[in-house]
Amino acid sequence: MEMSSKTRAEEPSTDPPPVIPELPEDIIVDILARAPRCYYPTLSLVSKYIKSLVSSTEIYSRQSSLGCTEHCLYVVLYDIDNSVNRCYILRRKANGNSRLVLVPSLSSLPCGKRFVVLGSRIYVVGRMKNYCTLIAKSNVLTIDCRSHTVQHLPGVRIPYTANENLADIIDGRIYIVGYFDLKKVMVRLVVMAGKIYMRNSKNSFVYEPGEGIWKMDEKLSLEMWKDACVVDEVLYYYNWVKRSIRTYDPNERCWGVLKGMEEFLQERSGWLEIEMVSYGGRLGLVFLEGEEKSRKIWCAEVSLERRQGGEIWGKVEWCDHVLTGNFSIMKPLDVMV
User: Fold this and answer.
1) What SS3 string covers 137-196?
2) pLDDT band at residue 204, thresholds of 50, 70 and 90?
3) Which of 239, 322, 336, 238 is nearest to 288 (CA)?
4) Is residue 113 scored above 70 in pLDDT?
5) 3-state helix, strand, coil in the chain (%, to 5)
6) What is the DSSP letter of 279?
7) Other Cβ atoms within 10 Å of 244 Cβ, number
């Protein structure tokens, strides 16, 4: 019996080796912080411990100190069936495919379209129909995209106007534009070269914070731009009549067309909606096609090149079907986390 017991004791263990080596936690965090974010969903499957680390605020702080922050695309969609805004994040898989994933803690956001980004935070400005308990204290919310938590800014209230407020950011400050004239509906606001540009149903206007005066911009007024974005101080918008992406350079004060996109746009003539966003120095497209209840949402990333003569050319780097459902596109947002 003693020999048998001794033999069993000397037999090699058949238990699998530990998945995580015995390393100090700060070293593990340092290693994970250097990994591309597209690998985080896979890393989360390793263990509950690793899952807690890749979703912690500590790893985001470490990434920031290492200079390993990334551009992440968030998309706010209006869920038509449930009458609520929901926030999704674009997940790029290691194999190159993409999909929109619902952020559980951001599955019920205020109705409206006034979302602006500053650093790793999204600010929600203005009317909040389904956040009544917070409106008493503030009608500005902040979303921390490192922890996906929502807070109101105490003591900050934006006066309600006859129309929805518009908002954007200049030099770290949020500028909010409100208006009371129902006949002059402002449909879009963008910032270029430190100036605010806004359009109503007839004309475009420019506002320079240092002067505090609105002026009409005749060149920008030549086209009825909307749902636009700005990349490297150039405005981009989709012209539904000409079925092209139009550009406006405020320095040259001239309109143009984004070259190299003709075939891509022709193949996708069935769009119902399209929104654009500056995405890490490139042009991000979020568009919707299909019928009610089974609408398909697509995302695409377009690299930009200015060639001799001033023409701007675009190249579609990737385009994926990322979600299906009964949605309307509210706002795509480029967040640094």
Assistant:
1) CCCEEEEECCCCEEEECCCCCCCCCCCCCEEEEECCEEEEECCCCCCCCCCEEEEECCEE
2) very high
3) 322
4) no
5) 15, 45, 40
6) E
7) 17
With tokens 């470490």, the residue in question is 62
Kindly state the greatest CA–CA separation across the chain: 100
**What is the fold, at CATH topology level, of the domain defined by 71-336?**
Neuraminidase (2.120.10)
Q: CA angle, 172 as apex, 167 and 177 as ends, to 5°?
A: 20
The residue assigned the tokens 């700005």 is 230
**Placement of tokens 């080796």 in the chain:** 17
27's tokens: 């070293």
Report the distance separating Cα 232 and Cα 173, nearest Å. Answer: 19
Closest CA to 304 of 257, 258, 267: 258
pLDDT of residue 119: 86
pLDDT tops 70 at residue 294: yes
The token duo for 74 is 């968030």
Q: How far apart are CA 218 and CA 178, in angstroms?
A: 22
| Structural tokens at position 106 | 């951001």
Q: Domain boundaries in the chain?
A: 2-66, 71-336
Q: How far is 260 from 320, CA to CA, in rounded Å?
A: 19
CA distance 200 to 179: 11
**pLDDT tens, residue by residue, 226-277:** 889 999 999 999 999 999 999 999 999 999 999 999 999 988 878 889 999 9
Let me know: does 187 contact 137? Beta carbons within 8 Å. Answer: no
